[in-house]
Amino acid sequence: MKLSLLGVGNAGTRIVDRLVEAEAETGREFTEGNVLAFDTSTVAFEETTTIPEDRRVLIGDTHPEVTEHHPNGDADSDADGDHAGPPADADADDSASVVDSERPGVGGDPDVGAAVARDDLPEIRRALDMVDETEVDATLVVAGLGGGTGSGVGSVLLEELQSSYEEPVYVLGVLPAETESDERALTAARGVRTIVPLADAVIPVDNESWRAGEARIDDRYAAINDEIATRILALFAAGELEPDNPSEMRIDPTDVSRTLGVGGLAAIGHATIEIDSGPNGLIGRLLALLGLREDDPDTTTDAATIKRLVRRALESKLTMPCDVSSSDRVLLILSGPPAKISRKGFETGRYLLEDETGTVEVLAGDEPLSRADSITATVLFANVTDVPRVEELQRRGLASREEATTSASAAAKEVAASAAADRTDSSGSPPDDRGFEFGENGDGSDRGVAIEDADGGMATSVSDSETAPAETGDEAETGDETETGTETETGDETETGTETETGDETETGTETET
């Protein structure tokens, strides 16, 4: 399957860089050079080795809210994105206390990221023109969903791609670990709910499940990127090597697109077993050249071994922990020497997946690799709905937002009380109590900000120009006629009103109803 790879933000750029490197290492040419990286900071660009310089697109460099990167500054290792850890001298526990607003780029703010992307859409479109859409079967956007650039710019880029591309657009989104800040958790929760409806499918990668116990997350980024590259190539690049012998069950790009066609969240499992290379090994090939090799008619791996391999992939560490029985559709890919993969083993693996996932929509195909000394099983679980990690991020993000709102309100009240006390001290008498109305931000203002609703949805931005009309107990209307009314209602249903109408005629009346 041919893919164009678009990295967004620090994490996305680094992962795409590793994917292109793995493409060269394995010989699976699945991008054909259709690679781009977008970022609001040059931090990741300075460390990429495989993405050509003309394919690195810096946006927002003239935007007033974008922070410049200073190579010798404290923010050097603190770039925007989920794969940017704390400074090198920080303790493990400090990774959760990194101040996102000090990060180069958009400071971890997805709203600023989205605004920057919309302002620089012409630049983004010019970069997308470098991608030969006719040569690819799909596009994969790679981003750290906890970062302001990954989540903010990524969502705008996704909208642009869906409006102009005919082929599917998938997203690989990195979720922050528990040791990362609450702000990142909220950004990731918002990002998931924004991106999932826009993308044809989303493959989350959970940093927490790959963190390896108490290890610092920034110490694990390189290893996590290696695991991501292994699984993405095993899935999307399967079949990109020309086989020595054709296979009736060879994986096809339509198998992948059909599996992901159900949308939603997807997870990838992966497992490998070493096999006796036999005639496929170096000595075996030399004997064959000399005509001294005796062919063994029974060289296939037995069905029980294939079944164990598929079960290992099923129970392996998935890209995102989930209940696989909530999958809508499943794809199995077996990669290895065709002589070692029996049809019976293939069918046994499919039946196992049907039993474990509860779905009959299990597709399967193989990737013939004649010179391989192992067999690999890659399993794609599409549209999984039972994903505790995403639900946890939602809860953590909402709790963080509510705490921030409460703190802001308390601070605003304290400021108001202090100001009132100052006025009392200066005048000698208490001021009139005119009240204090809190705005959307808890500080008396109504600055526009898109936040997640309490039920997990996205709230509409509230701006200064969208202020609700004031309501009071008295209404006045002036034109040719002026009417003034006062209405009082008590528990005894007594209504007293006084109406005065002024125009060409004046009428005064009093009504009392009991």
From TrEMBL:
Q: Which organism is it from?
A: Halopenitus salinus
Q: Which Pfam families match?
A: CetZ_C, Tubulin
Q: Which BP terms from GO are recorded?
A: regulation of cell shape
Tell me a Gene Ontology molecular-function term this record carries: GTP binding
Keywords of this entry = Cell shape, Cytoplasm, GTP-binding, Nucleotide-binding
Region annotation Disordered: residue ranges? 64-118, 395-514
Does tRNA processing appear among the keywords?
Answer: no
- UniProt superkingdom: Archaea
Q: Where is the composition biased (Acidic residues)?
A: 472-514
Where does the record place Basic and acidic residues bias?
64-73, 395-404
Give the taxonomic lineage as stored in the record.
Archaea, Methanobacteriati, Methanobacteriota, Stenosarchaea group, Halobacteria
Family, as annotated: Belongs to the CetZ family.
- Tell me what this protein is called: Tubulin/FtsZ family protein
Limits of the Tubulin/FtsZ GTPase domain: 2-243
Q: Which SMART domains match?
A: Tubulin
Compositional bias (Low complexity): 84-99, 405-421
